[in-house]
Amino acid sequence: MAIFITTPRKRHVCDEFTEPQRLVTPGATITADSDFMRGHGTYMEEDELIASVAGVVEKVNKLISVRPLKTRYNGEVGDVIVGRIQEVGQKRWKVDVNSRLNAILMLSAVNLPGGELRKRSAEDELKMRQYLTEGDLISAEVQSVFSDGALSLHTRSLKYGKLGQGIMVRVSPSLIKRRKTHFHNLTCGASVILGNNGYVWITRTPTEEEEAPDGGFVQNLQPVSDEDRRVLARLRNCILGLADHRMMLYDTSVIYTYAASEDYPVADLLNPDIMKDVILKVRQQLNQEAT
Amino acid sequence: MASIQLGEGEKTFIIHGICKDDLRSDGRTCLSYRNFELECGVVSNTSGSARLKLSNTQVLVGVKAEMGPPNPLNPSRGGIEFFVDFSANASPKFAGRGGDELAAEISNMLGLVYKNKKMLDYKSLCVIAGQCVWTLYADIVVLECGGNLLDAIALAVKAALYNTRIPLVTVHKDMDGTEDIDVSSNPHDFVTLDTKNLPVLVTVTTVGSGHIVDATLEEEACSMACIVAAVNKEGAIDGMVKKGSGSLTIDSIYKMLTSAKQIGKDLNKSLDDFLSKKGSDMSSKGFLT
């Protein structure tokens, strides 16, 4: 079996790329006008407002801030996130959500197995590790943001909860396009959760009889069929390919990439040249639609 | 290694894929290796250097040739020493002294493999027997840590050694019999090393009842044991280490080594082909461009 060794790829800017307006680099002067207020990603020096991060300048009335291009996840209330349990603590779980600080998931903010609604007792607290333990993946919604930027999550809806068999991939949170829904059942037989925090969960769409949503507390550990696995692997490579080419992730772009990739075997998508062709096709398709 | 935690569902998914369908999460079969990027001559102030990027694993190796007194036990032989440094960028766990233990383990392993006198022509590194020999210092920096680290390091070391240029020195005797060393003033006078016998490391990881090569970080998290074999271009094994807490049966060790031999042969062939084309590159503008 041949193993290909290549020289490092150079990043090419695609032809139709238009640079966003007011793109700044750290140290660039945004304005010398002292009428403006200093927002995130900026600092004042000698009456000049200077960018401290690379990103796009945003202006709201008198407030100027710079939204960074490459960043950790900054949560907002209502965001859908995919996270990994890091720690089990007093009435709470600590969750890694690709943010600067771990998010917390309170025991009172989860649905108990069986769906009963009641006050959480001391027994529930002792059983916490049986519900969710270190390493488990969950999908959740941001309930509130603390003053230091840490997030508080909740899973009090049956669509959220523990995640079972599937693949998690990490991409930059800036690449996730904000949509009305982040849960997508794709026609290829797979479901994706495009977490706002840049964690993407790929899994098989459950069949009708498996549907009974229980917040994921009953895990189905039956082997996934070969075809399903191929679909998930292809989807994973497509999503990573999109992220690698700095394309926004949302249902349409994922579906188009999946369709365009079907000319190639799954493993070939790891080849950067093939992926480039696939992405080019998707780009054209998306541009065509936009016009 | 920089390990990650996985949930039960994820682990089951990975293990079933490997044992049942011979299909891994990225669409590879158990015994297929990923393509990787390699660049030689990236650091201008070394004698030889290479940078290797295998998906999310990135290593930079610089080799520095220095003249010094030989090891008294082997007065007419040069030597090679390894030093591994884990960048805290690779994982926050490596900050401070966090990576030291793992670094010592890896440099010891490489040291053991390269100790074999058949690997490199250590005699040619001798300038004046008993007084002055070339010692090669291979400094390895792990910039990103995303699984299959040992294989990546060994490949990069081999590439950096291929890339190494040692200044040409001549020894001439003075009237009174003392020996003098003359370093050629022409920078184009150099000798290169013969790397054709150098092995690469192949890590074969057991997952469930099957075994895989070129494991990702997620797959490593599902594994209890692995065998690291040093394989040369003929497919012969120059050394091996078993890592991890799990146990292996004779049967599975045999199967794993057979896979390691085959993969090692292929890897060596690909690497030698690449190096003969691009390995003596010195023109790189640096790895940040």
Automatic annotation (TrEMBL), chain A:
<feature type="domain" description="Exosome complex component N-terminal">
    <location>
        <begin position="23"/>
        <end position="60"/>
    </location>
</feature>
<comment type="similarity">
    <text>Belongs to the RRP4 family.</text>
</comment>
<dbReference type="GO" id="GO:0071034">
    <property type="term" value="P:CUT catabolic process"/>
</dbReference>
<dbReference type="InterPro" id="IPR026699">
    <property type="entry name" value="Exosome_RNA_bind1/RRP40/RRP4"/>
</dbReference>
<dbReference type="GO" id="GO:0000956">
    <property type="term" value="P:nuclear-transcribed mRNA catabolic process"/>
</dbReference>
<dbReference type="GO" id="GO:0005730">
    <property type="term" value="C:nucleolus"/>
</dbReference>
<comment type="subunit">
    <text>Component of the RNA exosome core complex (Exo-9), composed of EXOSC1, EXOSC2, EXOSC3, EXOSC4, EXOSC5, EXOSC6, EXOSC7, EXOSC8 and EXOSC9; within the complex interacts with EXOSC4 and EXOSC7. The catalytically inactive RNA exosome core complex (Exo-9) associates with the catalytic subunit EXOSC10/RRP6. Exo-9 may associate with DIS3 to form the nucleolar exosome complex, or DIS3L to form the cytoplasmic exosome complex. Exo-9 is formed by a hexameric base ring consisting of the heterodimers EXOSC4-EXOSC9, EXOSC5-EXOSC8 and EXOSC6-EXOSC7, and a cap ring consisting of EXOSC1, EXOSC2 and EXOSC3.</text>
</comment>
<keyword id="KW-0539">Nucleus</keyword>
<keyword id="KW-0597">Phosphoprotein</keyword>
<dbReference type="GO" id="GO:0003723">
    <property type="term" value="F:RNA binding"/>
</dbReference>
<dbReference type="Pfam" id="PF14382">
    <property type="entry name" value="ECR1_N"/>
</dbReference>
<feature type="domain" description="K Homology">
    <location>
        <begin position="166"/>
        <end position="205"/>
    </location>
</feature>
<dbReference type="InterPro" id="IPR004088">
    <property type="entry name" value="KH_dom_type_1"/>
</dbReference>
<feature type="domain" description="RRP4 S1">
    <location>
        <begin position="72"/>
        <end position="144"/>
    </location>
</feature>
<dbReference type="GO" id="GO:0071035">
    <property type="term" value="P:nuclear polyadenylation-dependent rRNA catabolic process"/>
</dbReference>
<keyword id="KW-0963">Cytoplasm</keyword>
<dbReference type="GO" id="GO:0071051">
    <property type="term" value="P:poly(A)-dependent snoRNA 3'-end processing"/>
</dbReference>
<dbReference type="InterPro" id="IPR036612">
    <property type="entry name" value="KH_dom_type_1_sf"/>
</dbReference>
<dbReference type="Pfam" id="PF21266">
    <property type="entry name" value="S1_RRP4"/>
</dbReference>
<protein>
    <recommendedName>
        <fullName>Exosome complex component RRP4</fullName>
    </recommendedName>
</protein>
<dbReference type="GO" id="GO:0000467">
    <property type="term" value="P:exonucleolytic trimming to generate mature 3'-end of 5.8S rRNA from tricistronic rRNA transcript (SSU-rRNA, 5.8S rRNA, LSU-rRNA)"/>
</dbReference>
<dbReference type="GO" id="GO:0000177">
    <property type="term" value="C:cytoplasmic exosome (RNase complex)"/>
</dbReference>
Automatic annotation (TrEMBL), chain B:
<dbReference type="GO" id="GO:0071035">
    <property type="term" value="P:nuclear polyadenylation-dependent rRNA catabolic process"/>
</dbReference>
<dbReference type="GO" id="GO:0000467">
    <property type="term" value="P:exonucleolytic trimming to generate mature 3'-end of 5.8S rRNA from tricistronic rRNA transcript (SSU-rRNA, 5.8S rRNA, LSU-rRNA)"/>
</dbReference>
<dbReference type="GO" id="GO:0016075">
    <property type="term" value="P:rRNA catabolic process"/>
</dbReference>
<dbReference type="GO" id="GO:0034473">
    <property type="term" value="P:U1 snRNA 3'-end processing"/>
</dbReference>
<dbReference type="GO" id="GO:0000176">
    <property type="term" value="C:nuclear exosome (RNase complex)"/>
</dbReference>
<dbReference type="InterPro" id="IPR050590">
    <property type="entry name" value="Exosome_comp_Rrp42_subfam"/>
</dbReference>
<dbReference type="Pfam" id="PF03725">
    <property type="entry name" value="RNase_PH_C"/>
</dbReference>
<keyword id="KW-0963">Cytoplasm</keyword>
<dbReference type="GO" id="GO:0071028">
    <property type="term" value="P:nuclear mRNA surveillance"/>
</dbReference>
<feature type="domain" description="Exoribonuclease phosphorolytic">
    <location>
        <begin position="198"/>
        <end position="262"/>
    </location>
</feature>
<keyword id="KW-0271">Exosome</keyword>
<comment type="similarity">
    <text>Belongs to the RNase PH family.</text>
</comment>
<dbReference type="GO" id="GO:0000177">
    <property type="term" value="C:cytoplasmic exosome (RNase complex)"/>
</dbReference>
<dbReference type="GO" id="GO:0034475">
    <property type="term" value="P:U4 snRNA 3'-end processing"/>
</dbReference>
<dbReference type="GO" id="GO:0035925">
    <property type="term" value="F:mRNA 3'-UTR AU-rich region binding"/>
</dbReference>
<dbReference type="GO" id="GO:0071038">
    <property type="term" value="P:TRAMP-dependent tRNA surveillance pathway"/>
</dbReference>
<feature type="domain" description="Exoribonuclease phosphorolytic">
    <location>
        <begin position="33"/>
        <end position="167"/>
    </location>
</feature>
<dbReference type="InterPro" id="IPR027408">
    <property type="entry name" value="PNPase/RNase_PH_dom_sf"/>
</dbReference>
<dbReference type="Pfam" id="PF01138">
    <property type="entry name" value="RNase_PH"/>
</dbReference>
<protein>
    <recommendedName>
        <fullName>Ribosomal RNA-processing protein 42</fullName>
    </recommendedName>
</protein>
<dbReference type="InterPro" id="IPR015847">
    <property type="entry name" value="ExoRNase_PH_dom2"/>
</dbReference>
<dbReference type="InterPro" id="IPR020568">
    <property type="entry name" value="Ribosomal_Su5_D2-typ_SF"/>
</dbReference>
